[in-house]
Every structure is written in structure tokens, then in C-alpha cells.
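Example 9 (inverse folding). The structure is encoded as follows.
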């Protein structure tokens, strides 16, 4: 079972008490419906649980259970529902007419109706990637007009989607974790929300660990590079007999570094007697490099 099917299963099991919300859910479930001969309405689902829910909602809203037929192709199952309803046919034609305002057609009666409409649309047309792999929520609409309908409703709740043309329709999608999380929360899938939040936390932890590892690696690289240059400078000074002509404090620091090529700056400071500050040692090593550059 895909992650999207797990989400659909969770959404199908959620109760809907208000009649207006049930009507909105049904409208979302039938966004992909198309008209057949004799004003017969047909709709196809890829998930059996969604088809069962849609059949029950159609019977409740339009007074007659749709005919159901399971088909198979290329190892996939499809569940086709067909029914005849003058009232739905009228709704179908109104939604397809670009002159009509969607809100006046759907007539959402309470604050929860639009969320139920989006839930129905996801059940029928949505897909959601496993958030542990990537964030991607998409609705695949049959044509531009239905894409406009759903896009408008998403925009009204503050989440205008991106749009892409697919071979078999128009995709409305979100790829940022915040929008995916909020839209899924709006549809009511609480268990899925926890999955998304956990995946985001895990991803942040991994990113922080990677940043920390990279930072340590860079610091080690810088330390090794600096030590190598210092050792080379001291060797050059020794070869030309210049080290013996330098002040004693520089010779002391030079020999401490020379005898401890792998030591860090803090370790080198601890090896000095009398004690020296870190900035003081830095200054001495820089002076040794400067003397070597003159050669």
C-alpha cells in the first residue's frame, strides 16, 4: 500500500456529522466525474475504500446507489461508478460553465464545508509522497476548468497551488513542507500530520548533523593546512641558518611547533613554559611565516 493510500484510508474512516459537510465531501469526490450517454454520470476511483465511500455518499445525496463495476488493467484495479441524477447533472453543468462563480454553485453552509470539499477532492484525485522521502502533495484534475475550480478553493483557504500540465490532466501541487502539512491538516488527517512533523524533525536533525560534520572537517582541514605551512617555514629558516638569528621567544615557539606537527593551537599553547596566550602564539607563528617569505 502506498503512503497516499494510507492517507486515504485514514480520511475515509473519519466521521462527518453535518449534512452540509457531507454534501461538500460528495462534490469533491465527484470532481473527476464525466457525462456519458443519456445524462448518465460516470466516475472512476483507483482505491476500493474511496469507491465504497463515494457510493454511500451518492446514495445519501441523490437517493439511489450507483452501479458499481471493478475493472483491471496492467495489474491495476479500477472501480467505476455510474448513476443518473438530474440534480447532480445540473451541478455538473454549472461547474463546467466558466461564467458561474463556484461558491454560488457549491453553497458551502459552514466553515467545515470547504475542508470537506478538499478532502473529497484528495480522496478522488490526490496523491501524497512519503514525507520521509520528499514533500509533494498533488491533485490531478481531468481538465483546466476543474483545475480552476479546485485551485480557487485552495486559494480561498490561503494555499494557492502551483500548476503543471500532465499527460492525463492538470496537476495542482505543493512541494514545501509547510503548505503540505497545513493542507493535510485542513482535510483532517491527524495521523499523517504527525508523520510529516516527525519527518521534518528527522530531516532537520540530519541537516544539522551534516552541517556540524562539515564544519568540523573544514576546521581540521584548516588546522592541517596551517600546520603544514608553519612546518615548511621553520624548515626553510633552519636550512638557511636564519632561525638561530631570530629572538629566543620566536625560536622557542618554532621548536614547539616543529616537534609537535599534529598539535592544535590550544595544545601548543599548553606546551609553552612560561605560559603564552593563544593570540600571542598566533602572532609568533605569523612572524615565522613572514621571516620565511623573505627568503
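The amino acid assigned to each position is listed next.
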Amino acid at each position: 500500500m502506498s503512503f497516499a493510500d494510507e492517507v486515504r484510508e485514514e480520511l475515509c474512516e473519519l466521521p462527518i456529522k453535518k449534512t452540509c459537510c457531507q454534501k461538500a465531501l460528495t462534490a469533491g469526490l465527484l470532481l473527476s466525474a464525466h457525462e456519458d450517454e443519456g445524462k448518465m454520470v460516470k466516475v472512476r476511483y483507483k482505491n476500493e475504500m474511496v469507491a465504497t465511500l463515494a457510493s454511500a455518499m451518492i446514495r445519501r445525496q441523490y437517493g439511489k446507489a450507483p452501479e458499481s463495476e471493478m475493472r483491471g488493467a496492467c495489474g491495476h484495479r479500477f472501480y467505476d461508478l455510474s448513476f443518473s441524477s438530474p440534480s447532480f447533472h445540473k451541478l455538473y453543468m454549472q461547474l463546467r460553465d466558466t461564467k458561474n462563480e463556484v461558491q454560488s454553485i457549491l453553497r458551502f453552509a459552514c466553515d467545515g464545508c470547504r475542508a470537506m470539499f478538499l478532502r473529497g477532492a484528495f480522496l478522488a484525485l490526490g496523491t501524497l509522497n512519503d514525507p520521509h522521502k520528499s514533500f509533494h502533495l498533488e491533485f490531478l484534475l481531468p481538465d483546466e476548468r476543474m483545475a480552476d475550480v479546485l485551485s480557487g478553493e485552495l486559494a480561498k483557504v490561503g494555499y494557492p497551488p502551483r500548476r503543471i500540465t500532465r499527460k492525463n490532466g492538470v496537476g495542482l501541487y505543493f512541494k514545501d513542507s509547510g503548505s503540505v502539512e497545513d493542507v493535510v491538516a485542513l482535510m483532517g488527517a491527524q495521523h499523517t500530520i504527525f508523520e510529516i512533523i516527525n519527518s521534518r524533525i528527522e530531516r532537520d536533525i540530519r541537516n544539522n548533523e551534516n552541517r556540524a560534520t562539515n564544519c568540523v572537517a573544514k576546521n581540521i582541514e584548516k588546522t592541517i593546512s596551517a600546520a603544514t605551512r608553519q612546518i615548511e617555514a621553520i624548515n626553510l629558516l633552519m636550512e638557511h641558518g636564519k632561525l638561530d638569528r631570530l629572538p629566543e621567544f620566536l625560536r622557542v615557539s618554532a621548536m614547539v611547533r616543529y616537534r609537535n606537527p599534529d598539535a592544535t593551537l590550544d595544545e601548543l599553547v599548553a606546551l609553552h613554559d612560561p605560559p603564552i596566550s593563544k593570540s600571542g602564539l598566533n602572532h609568533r607563528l605569523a612572524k615565522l611565516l613572514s621571516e620565511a617569505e623573505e627568503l
